[in-house]
Structures are given as structure tokens and as C-alpha cells.
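Bumping my old thread because nobody answered last time. Still need a sequence for this structure:
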């Protein structure tokens, strides 16, 4: 008997794996609702901290730490605004306020990009504990949002590849994950 002849006809990644994309359900699930609440709570907590106790704490910092505080607080604010915008856009889709295609056309305004901390580890340790905690939490929430966004993108635009080229299939998935 020999090997079955593989078709060179392109197949969808979902068909290839025989998998059902659950990402759309995930984006409308209680897990998304929890992520939404966590993200929005973090926005509120960060704003309250930066407008209140954070100002007082920043006054007691040395010159380098003060500059690091200003940088990290701006990065924190930017990161959280990106996350909040994406979460609100996804919630609008989930609640039927926007169609997925409308959200996709609005998506170009939301710039999700991975960020590291605004300073090195030594300087980061000199920042007030609450700012460090908020920054680290925001990075974790941002990473989860980016992961969900990439999964939704892959579900919307499945990768098409010949069935016989598994390496190209995996390379394209990696490219899509890191270039989105």
C-alpha cells in the first residue's frame, strides 16, 4: 500500500487541525467579562493612585528615580488606555452595539503593542511599591489582551497553506503572532 497522496489544494488552518475555533466564544464568555472588569478596575486604581498618593510619593524621589517615575507613569497610562480601548471595542461587539466588521474598521485606532518597563530593573526597584505593582499588573493584562486579539485575528483570517507544507504553516503562524 503506500502513503496516501496528499492534496496540494490549500486548506484552512481550522480544517487542517480539525479544530473548532472557540476564540469567539471566549471573547464573549465570563472569562472575557472577568478580564474586562480586571482591566477597567486597573484603569481606575491607576488613575486614583497617580492623581493622589502617587503624586506625594513621587516628590520624595531622587532625580533619576523621579524621571523613572514620570516615564513609568506615562507608559502605564498609555498601556492602560490601549487595553481599555480594545476591551471596550470587544465589549461593544459582544453586546451587539457593533458588528465584527465595524469593530474591525475601528480596530486600526487601537494600537496594541507590547511594552516593557520604562526603566531598568535597578531603577524600577527605586519606584514606589504601588506604582511597581500597578505597572506589573498592567503588563500582565496587556499580554492577555494581545493574546486574545491575536487569536481573534487568526480566527477571522485563517492561514491558508498547502497540506504538504507543515513547516511553512508553522512559520506563517509565528509570523502572524509576532507581526500583528
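Sorry it took so long. Here it is:
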Amino acid at each position: 500500500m503506500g502513503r496516501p497522496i496528499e492534496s496540494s489544494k490549500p486548506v484552512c488552518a481550522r480544517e487542517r487541525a480539525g479544530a473548532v475555533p472557540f476564540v469567539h466564544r471566549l471573547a464573549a464568555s465570563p472569562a472575557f467579562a472577568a478580564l474586562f472588569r480586571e482591566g477597567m478596575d486597573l484603569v481606575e486604581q491607576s488613575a486614583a493612585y497617580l492623581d493622589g498618593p502617587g503624586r506625594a510619593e513621587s516628590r520624595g524621589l531622587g532625580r533619576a528615580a523621579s524621571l523613572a517615575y514620570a516615564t513609568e507613569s506615562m507608559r502605564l497610562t498609555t498601556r492602560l488606555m490601549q487595553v481599555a480601548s480594545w476591551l471596550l471595542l470587544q465589549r461593544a461587539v459582544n453586546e451587539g452595539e457593533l458588528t465584527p466588521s465595524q469593530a474591525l474598521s475601528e480596530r486600526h485606532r487601537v494600537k496594541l503593542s507590547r511594552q516593557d518597563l520604562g526603566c531598568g530593573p535597578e531603577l524600577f526597584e527605586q519606584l514606589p511599591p504601588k506604582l511597581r505593582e500597578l505597572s506589573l499588573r498592567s503588563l500582565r493584562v496587556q499580554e492577555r489582551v494581545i493574546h486574545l486579539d491575536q487569536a481573534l485575528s487568526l480566527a477571522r483570517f485563517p492561514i491558508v497553506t498547502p497540506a504538504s507544507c507543515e513547516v511553512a504553516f508553522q512559520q506563517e503562524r509565528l509570523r502572524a503572532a509576532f507581526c500583528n
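The chain is about 70% helix and 5% strand. Let me know if any region looks off to you.
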